[in-house]
Amino acid sequence: MYSRAILTYPLFLDCKLTCHKKCYTRANQECLKDMNSSTANMQSKGVCVVKGKVFGRPLGELDLSMGKVPAVVECLITIIEMYGMYTEGIYRKPGLTTRVNELKELIDNNDVSKIEFEKYQVHVLASVLKSFLRDMPEPLLTFDCYDDFIRAASLSEDRVSTLFNILKKLPKVNYDLMERLVFHLARVALHENVNRMNASSLAIVFAPCVLRTNKLVPAQESLRDIEQQTLCISSIISHQMDKIKSTLADIDTLDTAHHTATHRLSSLRISKVYGPTEGPSKMDEEEKMLVGQIQEIKKEKDFLTSNLPSLRRTNSDDDLLSTDDGSLDDVDTNTLGSSRKAKLKNTTKKSKRSNNNTLDSDEDPIMV
Fold it and tell me: How far is Cα 307 from Cα 295, in angstroms, rounded to an integer?
């Protein structure tokens, strides 16, 4: 059963057993006893246990050959980002059950790299991704951190800073997957005017999948927790959206500067007339300056792109998130951001100044 059943009846989050409120004490004893018995014995007791090659497995046991996150997650997210960012109701509308089960069986019994995910509708892929997160034996944000997240959601001030502090307590494999997932959801939310899925809508869908408790919770208390769970995920996604918008704006500025510099360099080279002893290998000062600018722009763009999917806090509360491991979290991101923006402005001004002497030409710019 899905955890929303808790609205009506108590739900056991370890075995997914739902029962009447007057029977939960006896059912819970059976559940706990069955959790330590064999799978066959569990099924004879009526407890549903799902554990395949991929679904229902701990994160540490999954294939990470495609990067820091499980291969199946990377494949699903990649295809969804390629074909489904503008699909209305993505993650809200379920996929066809038969197709979802078919794809889950394929993933459990085959090499993920050989599966043709493109053949499936976006809603089917989205449903499989949600199912993967929901079937994890321990949720992505872990049982140990559940109470901390719920308390952080109730804060009126420094909520986001506290949430990011708690995220740092996650095991590395959990943190890496959460980082990739949040970056993906933020990208989806940026197209909310088309897909109708903003940060709050996505949080309503994903909060029960990644944040849940292993304790027996009364129905009334669980209702309060659902609101806090949603607020946690919504706050994290919204913060990531702000970071993406700022970074993408910087990348657009670099793209403009790159186009200006390459167009000027192309025009400069086309306008030159070489003598019999001269050749294009000999560059004057302006050419050298333009080549240097283009190389710097490329380095800066690569740096910004490589840091897009990050869960690091970026505002004035960064000092609350510092660590002793020498990571980029220790860097004052305000200072770093100001320095980058100053470089962007300087590079753009230089490119525009160089372009004032551009000769009229319809030739394509030479990419250096």
Answer: 19
